[in-house]
Amino acid sequence: TNKGIKLQWINSTVEDAKLTIIYRSTKQELDSFEKIKEISTDSIEWVDTNTQYGINYFYHLRTQDEALNLSAPTPLLCVKATTLHTEICYNNMKIIHMEISDFKYH
Description:
This protein has strands spanning 5-10, 17-25, 34-40, 45-48, 56-65, 77-81, 86-88, 98-99. By secondary structure, it is mainly β.
C-alpha cells in the first residue's frame, strides 16, 4: 500500500461532473492552496504520498463539470501525518466524509 494521507470522499450528484480536483496547503488561508491532483469522478479516493511526518496539511476538493464550471469548495480538512497513523486535527470533519456539494455557477 502507498504511504501517505488517504483521502476518501462522496462525489457530487451532478450528472455531468467530470473531475474531482484536490487542493492542498500547509496554511488555512484559501489563497495559499495549490491544485495537487485531478481525478476522474469514477474515483472516490486518493493517497497523497508527497507528505512529511508531523506537518499539518489542509485539503479541500472541488468538482469540475464538462463545461469547466467548478463547484463550491468543500469545508477545509486538516490532517497531520504521523509515523503510526493519520490524525485529524480539524474536529468537525472526518477524513472519510469529504462530501462535494452540488455546483454553484459563477
